């Protein structure tokens, strides 16, 4: 039967095959992923801890060892070769940084952090990829020459090529196919097309009724009507909101050592979903996330929504355990700049933290010019090991009401603290009385003083508990995990940042005025700016003259529809990224995006109504010989559903999917929080709602999404990888969640069909959007009979045989390729 090639069979083949990502020496030219790892994890460590003694800038190179060029690292020093690529245990570098041998320590005075050592070990294990050339000196950035690079040129709408198609996309694609001698695949059949479109726009399978209506509609606008219906569905925002949450590494916990829960962050998740559903123009979508608190509002609801939008900034990862000046806010700002660069601009700006970017025209001053916008912003603190109280969350009530409430709370807090201080002094007095009594040796005095001390200690515990419990009480109004303008007094001020020499926050260089990167215009803040400047930054990012923002976003939309972008490296439009396969098409789409007022839904319509999108995935021997990777889109690429779509499809098939929007998660009461780095928060909350509403934790990934290649909540995920492992097949065969859905699915089809033939037909329509072939009906009927015989032999009661057999068949159908792959 057509579904006989089961996914689980292919999965088990992987068990005997080389594991994906198996460690091996890298090619002569490091991959973009290797270069990114080196620039983000390795070079900063070398610069900070090693260059002072082992580089051209050292007064005297120690041990005849330099670490500032690739060639020098490979050569080693007077002690011999430094590295054995692929083998950390045999590498002198790793032995030295581990400090296991007292005579071999590097750096000699202080041991590297455990995560830095782990990064070096991982680097050596992957073959020590190193993009540096032989030159170690600083190079001045030639911005005039840099602007000639394709991604930094202004977007200019190209003339639509004349290739006979009504949709301009098809003309650009067809021109490239003709030039390469390729022929496009025929159109996809209607069943495949509606399934493709429905999963693309909603992440859910089409219902049998929707399929039937499309098959019966023979009008030229039939597919356009399907697209419009899907774009109007609330499920659209849930699907495309999930894509955005991947990019901004959304999580419901903080990511610090204790990984404190953030009960309020769901509001930002829901804001993203709602913004996609109402087709909020992309430029405004960006503007509100960066500076919603600084934008004018139409009413109180609009004001609150814009505050919640800045959850994008608040969502940045937290670090450390202290709540005072020792808290490492600089790490949060670094994470923010890294995500902003990748998500909005397609640039690896973080590579300029310690030095000028080695490949792209981004200077270290550019980096700290951006740093000042975020160091001038007040970020909320969700609670950490040594300060378990939420601080600086943004109230969702009128500011005047907040002031009254906060003054009352401050008064109560002050009173309770004074009670503690008074009782501590009475602790102190009782101790002195006891010491005096012991010195005099009077037993009655000792007994009386001991009693008074015990009473004082007990009273102190009571008043401390009262103070601490009051501090943990939730505020008497709702709050958002959002940002606000920084303080204008105290140590943390609004203003420019200083260069951190070699990325060290303790070694400050010159102050850098806040501005946009020079390569993108270098716009500076007006001299009279009093606040953080985030609104100006947002406006520069979405300025139509910025050559990156529109290009980056339309490329992402294209990637989510076709499985790969016109630029394959969707978050890296720099030198180390891949150039566009269709540069004229990319610029056409970027220009149209702006002309259409940054409408996401208009871009979907343009792409999906093209013949390129609607062609089949049929292979062709001649096409494969010319373009085996389908770089030029002569056919549609088959691809597996992502983790959320697989889970939601299982629930939908069983009739168990709760389509209502998700709300807050059932976190434990805030008053009970006592999480530490040794006992961090960990939880998995199961729900029958859509997967986008499942609680996402930074430290611990939900088992289903970890297994089926869900997004990494610690880093921006611009493309889901697809692995095939035996564990995935075992999960679909054995997990209680799958068994529960199989049971409900079996009940559903048995209730909707009068006999096994009708039930098999219904099962195929629900799962695959088509009726079974005669052979498939025969095979499924035989399967039910054989399973029933086996169950009967195993002692299953007769009345339970039909249901149990159907549950088994349901699990087998869930495992088929056709259920989890899109044509």
Structure explained in plain terms:
Keywords: Coiled coil. This is DUF1553 domain-containing protein. By secondary structure, the protein is an all-alpha fold. It has 5 domains: 94 residues, no CATH class; 156 residues, no CATH class; 201 residues, no CATH class; 81 residues; 93 residues. The chain is built from 33 helices and 8 strands. The chain has a two-stranded antiparallel ribbon. A two-stranded antiparallel sheet has the order 2-3. A two-stranded antiparallel sheet has the order 5-6. β5 and β6 form a beta hairpin. The longest helix is centred in the middle third of the chain and has 42 residues. The protein is globular, with a radius of gyration of 31 Å. The two termini are 18 Å apart.
Lateral strand order in the biggest sheet: 1-4
Percent in strands: under 5%
Shape: globular
Low-confidence stretches: 1-27
- Rg calc: 31 Å
First-residue to last-residue Cα separation:
18 Å
Q: How would you state the average pLDDT, rounded?
A: 89
Biggest sheet: strands, sense, closure?
A: 2 strands, antiparallel
Structural class computed from helices and strand pairing: mainly alpha
Number of separate helices: 33
What's the helical proportion of residues? 40-55%
Number of domains: 5
Number of strands: 8
Structural topology:
Layout: H1 7-15, H2 32-49, H3 70-75, H4 92-98, H5 114-125, H6 143-146, H7 168-180, H8 190-202, H9 208-216, H10 222-231, H11 234-247, H12 266-277, H13 282-291, H14 300-309, H15 311-314, H16 329-345, H17 364-375, E1 377-378, E2 394-395, H18 399-440, H19 443-472, E3 479-480, E4 484-485, E5 497-500, E6 508-512, H20 534-541, H21 549-562, H22 583-595, H23 600-608, H24 611-614, H25 621-626, E7 639-640, H26 643-654, H27 703-707, H28 726-734, H29 736-752, H30 756-768, H31 774-793, H32 801-814, H33 817-820, E8 821-822
Helix pairs in contact: 1-28, 2-5, 8-10, 10-23, 11-12, 13-14, 13-20, 16-17, 18-19, 21-22, 21-23, 26-29, 29-30, 29-32, 31-32
